[in-house]
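Practice problem: predict the structure.
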Amino acid sequence: MKFNFAKVTNSRLMGSMGLLINWEKDKENIYQYFLLDAEGLGLADYVSLKNPTKDEAYREEERLMGGLGSDRIRISEDEALFLVNYYGNKNAYYEKSLPGDVEEYIDIINNYKSKITMEEMYPKICKEVTEDIEFINYMTMRFIAWDRESLKYFSGSEEISNMHITNINGTLLKNQVTKKDNGKYISEALYEDNDGYYVSKIAFNISKDGDSFKINSMLVTDKEPIYDFEVFDEISKEELVSIYEVSYIKEFIEKFYIDNPFLLRSDMEEGTFFTRFNFNNNHVKNEVYVINNDMRAIYYQVDNKFFVGTYSENDRKYINKILQCNYKEYIKLKEELYFEENVLYDFVESGSIDFEDFLN
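Answer:
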């Protein structure tokens, strides 16, 4: 096959990356889309398209990369195949099945050899971090995820890379960073592990190594358990829910998805759920990081209702204006409600099809 181009999102610090490779073979134009998961899966998703239209290729790229909040970086053929090989071999290590049509890429995993190292790839697959608070949030995230590789890269220390407080690749739900003396910071982390929710304090001593930050030392306190309802209170936020009545439901959902390929779509038993993320990860720069602050809106179709949840008045006005302009033949606004905490996602997970009944 003739290599045309490849690009990857520089989202390694968030734990996942989208990789696209384009080839030519016997007058066929082939697109391969990989989701690379650095936190326990390896290759998490794979799709290929042969001779797609420009719109089809664009939609699949947005589905893969649009929600990762990162730039898309051109890389070489060797770099792209190295990433497929590297992450594909993690699936066997983690005892996870390879996704999609495995025969289309298994030879890369089994046989491709490269002189590239992951350390050499890091400047490309990691965004440039220019602010100290952002760096502390990312390193706290990597520590909770038990990401030895990243801790080693950003510290140069085997001892730091082997430090952990979680049983598995945990998830940082909320973090508050407090700056102490020069180069010293405290993270107050709320996270999920395989056996529940915990809080812990992590002390960082960092310095600037050229243009990059470096971890000099870390100190971790004992973890303390926290109840799930306390976690909900910590990460919940105000929500504005707009409720529409839908006509021609199937036609509307397909048109809506085609028009908005950057949305994450989940087909549920009762309906269809979409998540709209911000196009950047600027929320990581805040002194208080919350995992769901990268969500701009959620949409849920159930029965003949279409619910839209937003988290600011500006987003409510903008998103609903676009909906009413672009889909006026399908939807009609019936009601708008304000909640002091997240409600719509809980409704989706409840399996209920009656929103009023759910609220009661």
